[in-house]
Specification:
Number of strands: 7
Largest sheet: 7 strands, antiparallel
Number of domains: 1
Strand content: over 45%
Number of helices: 0
Shape: globular
Order of helices and strands: EEEEEEE
Length: 87
């Protein structure tokens, strides 16, 4: 879920998917078997995207912060996600 509030519009993005993950070297591939992204905003630009059959690709990197391993993902557009702590 993501929210954005840039006047005059407010936007909400909801994503849910299922599938499998595959690691190839420093790449993480997420194969989406079922997936939907729904975008709604107060300016009337609503859409729902079926993402079944798509593959999202990320590069991954492990780091050690404060004695705990962390994972950082970078999507194919160069946006970093994380770091994520080990649970």
């Amino acid at each position: 879920m993501g929210e954005s509030n840039f006047p005059p519009c407010n936007m909400e993005v909801l994503h849910q998917s299922e599938g499998t993950a595959e690691v190839q070297g420093s790449s993480l591939l997420l194969h989406i078997s079922k997936g939907t992204t729904k975008v709604t905003d107060t300016c009337g630009e609503n859409e729902t995207n079926d993402e079944a059959g798509e593959t999202d690709t990320f590069t991954w990197e492990l780091s050690n912060s404060g004695g705990s391993p962390q994972l950082t993902l970078t999507n194919d557009q160069g946006t970093e996600l994380g770091p994520f702590d080990r649970q």
